[in-house]
Every structure is written in structure tokens, then in C-alpha cells.
Amino acid sequence: MCGITGYVGNRPAVPTALMNLKRLEYRGYDSAGIAFPNCTRMQIVRATGKIANLERALDGRDTTARVAIAHTRWATHGRPSEANAHPHCDCSGRIAVVHNGIIENYAELRRDLMAEGHTFLSETDTEVVAHLIEREVAAAEQERASDALSPAEFARAARAAIGRLRGAYAIAVIAQQLPEFVFVARKDSPLVIGLGEGENFLASDIPAVMRFTRRVILLEDGDCALISAETVVATDARGCSVDREPLDITWDDAAAEKGGFDHFMLKEIHEGPRTVRDTLRGRLTDDGAVALPRLPFQPEDWARFRRVAIVGCGTAYHAGVVAKRLFEHLLRRPVEASVASEFRYSDPLVDSETLVVLISQSGETADTLAAMREARARGATTLAIVNVVGSTLARDADAALLTQAGPEIGVASTKAYLAQLTALSLLGLYLAQIEATGDDARSTARRAEIAEYVAALCELPAMIETCLAREPEIAALAEKLSRHSCFFFLGRGYDFAAALEAALKLKEISYIHAEAYPAGEMKHGPLALVEPGVAVVGFCTQPLTAEKMVSNLKEVKAREGTVVTVVREGDAVSDSADEVITVPATLDALMPIVSMVPMQLLSYYVAKARGCDIDQPRNLAKSVTVE
Ligand code: AGP
Question: In the sheet where 3-8 sits, what is the strand order?
């Protein structure tokens, strides 16, 4: 998730585009860049790190241009570096492109273009766009006598190039030959056009243009537009004009950064559907299989592993607890889930026959990094499930599978947890698939099961939307529960793993003491703590143990605890329940993804009711880089 901006009009375009870009820095900050034409050639200025570094790199440059496109990066393809920073150009250096999204078929496009003699300067997926447009412009130039590229031809060439792309993109393009125009296109990535008097702006989201205008056009999927200072010509991918009604935005500036949400945490909870969609993107085949071509595993490599160890901290560890159960089911091998700070000093049973999966949002958590080094020192193969490209974990592990949550600003991890469970499910299915290639009955059954999982994974974004739509109910329930002094989260199997994460979310932002327990354990001690004023949230989403959960909740109700149950749509509700949270039903192993959304909302609204500092809770940091 990167941020792009652009400007065409009478102001100096470079400072204007950069000013707006700063409002998008939360979307990615590992490098930034800007392109603007001057009288002789396209100027490309890029720098690693924050936008401030880019501003320094622009010192002394002629920035009087009246058109510019800019970008702040969150690396998905190619580590953070100046060469991989946007904008990217074609071979002639006359066409510059900035892009937010993921181009799934970039590798094959790149191969074709290189075979035609195009030279690539970066590792990014984006660069293919510049060369594809170059190819189309060259074809157009051959057909006509004069050298001057017309705006209509430019737009046609750009549309033809975009038509070759598969994946998600919000793209802005400028051409040295046409310094009064910007071409844009979007599919599955946001892009807005800010309308001004004699000037127009473009950006990845509304807050970035609000400094200059509150009149915006929200482009829809498949839309393209050619923007000049006076005009915005919106078309579909074939060039047929489309009508997009401008909107008038009423948000205040402070709300702008958070996209209209009160806190980054709530905004990130609402990014759940996109996060899961993007983490699945390009990793599922049309015939219901999983494709992880970047993982360096061949069947023989995988066959070598006798056991799997999953390691992480906090929320990442909780994702590992879910994966332990799923991997054991799919792979029929011993799987261990460990807290990194314990793993590293436990003389762990890992060796060259062990695959160690390390989970981390930031990729910089000290204990997880140390656990990776410990595992490597013992000959194990390390695979990182990580959200930050170019982070230490992503760089130093033997392999990395990226979650596509985009930057997570709120200290309490929300969308990253959903992305981690999605990526872990893909990994488990992929490894099981490697083993299920035969024609024997077992392999056939396994492939059918994998296809069932793949279908269920694809339904998750819509299910998360359904949970988000129940936000008002959860907010009202949270208000009621916010005065309870102690919480227990109970579950069995996958539900217990979910309970662990739900308890962490509540305690870290509301400061209420909360514990997760395997429901069957309550009778062995914790039940002593249940009394009026104690809330017990029981996850009852696993058919195998649902009845057992009902009796456990009855035990709690008998001690006058407040009982909240999380049940699947259509399932019976325990009569012990004081409150019920209903969630869409999916496969047992995927239920933690669905049931965590109302839990994230519940924690958020309990903390809000208690007036806590939700995005920066006391005593905590987003990335714990010390032991
Ligand atoms: C979760 O909400 C917390 N922020 C914390 O437990 C976090 O999950 C843990 O510090 C691990 O961070 P990582 O995923 O960046 O390694």
C-alpha cells in the first residue's frame, strides 16, 4: 500500500504534489520520489526513507514545472532502495509512472519486454507499465507522420498498456512530450481526483487533496482519466466516456489522516477485507490450488522437514497458535507454536529437518529476530511471514511470505493478524499440496479439501464486511461491558487460539485485566474468580465442541458472571448467554479470522468508552526492538 499524488495547473507542481504526498506517508515510508518535465527532459528525483529526504534531494533543482506525479512507497516487490523507488521510466526516459498496487503478471510481461530489447533498472513490478506504454507510443508514432504525440494518442497508448496488466493498480503517468497532461487509471486500488479552478489534483485518498479542494471525483474500478489544468476526461478501459459525479467533502483536517475515522486502529479494522483480498492476490489458481512461486520449496525440500516450529510475539504468536492446529491437520507432522522470547532460550528441538516459521508484522521484533538466528545456528530452515518488505526478518530469513496489510500504525495489531492467518493458511495448504500430487485416494481427497479451503478463503473479505456492518451493535455492547473489571475469553480448539488474541486486544488498549483460557480448564481454578462484574466471552464456533462450550458457559452463569457468546449464523445460542455476537460461518480453521473482527471492534469501543489513548496505549510500542 503506497501513496501517489499528482498535480497539473498554475502552481509550482513539485511542492504542491509533495505537500499532498505528506498526507499519505502513513501508507508507506521506505522511499519516495517525484517526476516532472522540464524543457529538455523528464526529471526523476527519488530518495530512500521519508519524504523529508526527497525534499532534501530536490534542493537546488529547477522545480517550476506545472505538472508532477509523486509517490511514497511501501515495498511489495523489490527491497527499499533508490532504484526501486518510484517513479519508474521507460527506456527513453520520456514516460514516468507511479503506481500503488500489485501487478500479478509483471514477471511474464517483463520477460516479453526484455526479449524485445527493453532494459529494466529496478526489481519492481511497476516498471513494466512504463515500458508497455513506451511500446504502445512507439507503435502509434510509427503509424503517423508527425513526431508530436497527441493527448488522445497518449491516453490510447496508456489504456492499451494498462489493458495488459493483471492485479491491482492505481497508476499515474506523465510524458515529457505532453507537459500539460496526467493519465491515470485504477483497478482495486483507490484513486481520487481533486477538482480546482484552473488546476486539478490526484491522490490515493481524499485527505491528500483536502488542503486545496474539497470537491473530488472518486474513480471507479476500471476507470481511466486524462487530466489537464482545465479538464478531466474520464473513460472506461476501451476509451468510452464515463460520467463520474463530483462529491463535496465535509471532513475536518484532523480526521483527514485517518480517512475520516477517529483512530488509526478503527481505520485498520475497516481495512480487514482489503487486507485479506490483497494477501490472497496472485496466490490462488483458477482451479482451486495455491501458488506461492516465490517460496524456494521443491517437493524434495519439503519432504526433508520432519517438524515445524512456529515462533512469534504477541499477536503474531497468537496467529501461530491457530496455524499450529491447521498445519498438524493438513501436514500430519508435529508442529510447535512458541513465544519467541521463550523459544530462543529453550534449547529448542530444531535442526536441519525442521522448518521454522517466524511471524512478525514489523519484521524488527528483537526476540523474533533472535529466535530466527538461533534456529539458523541449529541448521533449521527459516521462513518469515512478515508485513514489512526489506525489514531485517524479511531480509535475513531463508524465505519470506509477505502479508499485504500495508502499514499498520495503531499499536494494537488488527489487520496484520487477519493477514497473518490468511498467509499461514496459504502456506499450510501449499505445503499440503506439494505432498498431494499422486493419483491415490488420499492425494485426491487432500486436493479436494485444499480446493474447499481455497473457496472459503475467497469468501472471507465479504464475511469480514458482514461483521463490520454490525459495528453499531458491538459499540452498544462495548458500552455496557466497559464497566466490567475483569474479562475471561474462553474457547476450545481454534476458538481458544482466537480467545488468546481477543484477550490481548482488550487488555492492551482498555487496560482491563483479561485472560484467555481453554474453556475446559475453568473448573480447574479460574472459575474461582467468576462473580458479578466479571465478563466471560465464550467462542462457540466449533461444531465439534459447541455442546461442551454450552456447559462451560452454564458453569460461569451459575456464578453470576456476565456471559457473552460468539456463535456462527444459524447455530443454536446457549440459554446462559446474556449477550450474543453472531458471525458468518466458515471452515473451523478460518473462524478465528471472522470472529476476531467483532472482538477488535469490541476492544476498540470498550477502550473508547473508558477514554483510553487507543492508537498509542500506555507502556507499549508498535515494534519492540529490544529484548
Ligand atoms: C499487538 O497488538 C501488539 N502490538 C504486540 O503484541 C505485537 O503483536 C508484538 O509486539 C509483535 O510485533 P511484530 O508482529 O511486529 O513482531
Answer: 42-48, 31-37, 67-73, 3-8, 200-203, 192-195, 215-218, 247-248
The residue assigned the cell 511542492 is 15
Query: What is the pLDDT at residue 258?
Result: 80
Give pLDDT tens digits for 200-226: 999 998 889 988 999 999 999 999 999
Q: For residue 308, give every residue at least 6 positions away whose Cβ sits within 8 Å of its Cβ, in sequence order, or none.
A: 327, 331, 333, 334, 335, 336, 354, 355, 356, 357
Radius of gyration (C-alpha) of the chain in whole angstroms: 26
Angle at 501 between CA 497 and CA 502, to 5 degrees: 110
Closest CA to 33 of 60, 10, 3: 3
Residues with CB under 6 A from ligand 1: 313-316, 360-362, 365, 368, 411-413, 508, 623-624
Nearest-angstrom CA–CA distance, 128 and 140:
18
Q: Cell numbers for 374, please give them.
A: 538461533
Q: Whose CA is nearest to atom 9 of ligand 1?
A: 314
Closest Cα to atom 6 of ligand 1: 314
Contact 275/418 with Cβ under 8 angstroms?
A: yes
**Catalytic residue status for 224:** no
Active site annotation includes 622:
yes
What does the pLDDT average to over 104-125?
Answer: 93
